[in-house]
Write a structure and sequence with these properties.
Blueprint: H1 11-48, H2 64-75, E1 80-83, H3 92-97, H4 101-110, E2 114-117, E3 133-134, E4 141-144, E5 154-157, E6 164-166, E7 184-188, H5 206-209, H6 213-217, E8 223-228, E9 243-246, H7 252-255, H8 267-272, H9 275-278, H10 282-310, H11 315-319, E10 334-342, H12 343-348
Parallel strand pairs: 1-4, 4-7, 7-8, 8-10
Antiparallel strand pairs: 2-3, 2-5, 5-6, 9-10
Helix pairs in contact: 2-4
Length: 357
């Protein structure tokens, strides 16, 4: 009977091998635990991710008319487009158009207006344009996030004729004959300056206009949103994209520390809207600004009439003055004060609804 071969291993070496095996076993157990934890986290992220929802597999089987209505609804959802001289948000319409040929074809058929970055902004022919960034100007909100003027390196072009429709100061003016009106513009409170016709002179007429000229340049904006608070910013110059406008969570006197009530204002405004009432109601603040804009329009018409009757100037000559345009056809917008918060914050908290009637 043959004997089993034996290998003699030093005791210290054997102990080292046993310890190594135990360490490997411990590491494997930890890896299993980590893997299980990561797997659970991945499953959780899949559940909460909007992109992980099961697709509607029978969508292609729907009648063409219903699919077309669905695409139109998706393309016409009101959105917030953030504009600054540094950048603008990428259009969600573009994202929808990239989903399939059917969506792209329907979007092109709708002839939606679009934004374009222009490089450089001071060239006569405004060449070197970027691609089309589609925007429904008649339903969306243009948020001028850090200034009260429309960026000079961005044009809004008509989706029907391709001509520049906004801003009005684009070289050679606007050749577009379609009556396209901007629905809503949002401007930071700290950038807004009330117009006051008495402050302007032929030498410095811009002093009278304040920041209200943007409303005329964008073809009588229907609604003006004055944005208070800074909770939407990300710490840098460009704000977060996922913002929502909600009714301010605090009263005016708690948020508008540097608010001034000065200048030439209509007498009925001074009598009916005292400072104490304004600083306790955002609705009254909105009424105040609407009355100031209406008063500015009336004073501008009186000033132009006086220049024509007393100084013998023509309407065409007055139109050549910077910041002294005719405001007879200008429509005073509805004014609302809102606060900008991240969409994530809005989903985590219940706030009063903000109706756009």
């Amino acid at each position: 009977m043959e004997s089993t071969p034996q290998v003699l291993v030093p005791a210290d070496y054997l102990a080292s091998l046993v310890n190594s095996i135990e360490n490997i076993r411990t590491d494997v157990e930890k890896l299993w635990e980590t893997n299980a934890s990561l797997s659970a986290e991945v499953q959780h992220l899949k559940k909460i991710s909007p992109c992980s929802r099961p697709s509607f597999q029978r969508f292609p089987k729907l009648p063409l008319e219903i699919r077309t209505l669905i695409w139109e609804m998706a393309l016409n959802i009101p959105r917030i487009t953030i504009l600054s001289h540094l950048a603008m948000t990428r259009s969600e319409v573009n994202t929808i158009m990239e989903s399939c040929q059917e969506a792209r074809r329907r979007a092109l058929e709708m002839r939606i207006p679009y934004l374009r970055l222009v490089y450089p902004h001071n060239t006569i022919h405004r060449k070197f344009r970027s691609g089309r960034n589609y925007i429904n100007v008649e339903t969306d909100t243009l948020y001028l996030s850090h200034h009260a003027y429309f960026p000079h390196n961005i044009d809004i072009l008509c989706g029907q004729c391709g001509d520049t429709i906004f801003p009005k100061w684009a070289e050679f003016g606007s050749l577009c004959q379609h009556n396209i009106q901007v629905n809503r513009v949002a401007i930071p409170f700290k950038e807004w300056v009330d117009p006051d016709e008495n402050k302007g002179t032929p030498v410095a007429p811009e002093l009278a206009v304040g920041t209200a000229d943007i409303l005329r340049h964008l073809n009588s904006v229907r609604e003006l949103l004055i944005v208070v608070g800074d909770s939407h910013t990300s710490g840098g110059y460009v704000p977060n994209r996922d913002i929502a406008f909600i009714p301010p969570r605090k009263q005016p006197y708690e948020m508008l520390e540097n608010f001034n009530y000065e200048g030439d204002k209509p007498e009925d405004l001074i009598l009916s809207l005292n400072l104490q009432a304004m600083m306790k109601s955002w609705d009254v603040m909105g009424m105040r600004l609407e009355m100031i804009l209406q008063h500015f329009k009336e004073k501008r018409c009186e000033s132009r009439k006086r220049y024509m009757e007393v100084d013998g100037l023509t309407a065409e000559e007055l139109d050549d003055w910077p910041h002294f345009a005719n405001l007879e056809d200008w429509e005073v917008p509805r004014v609302r004060y809102v606060e900008a918060v991240s969409e994530t914050w809005r989903k985590d908290w219940l706030t009063p609804p903000l109706h756009w009637s």
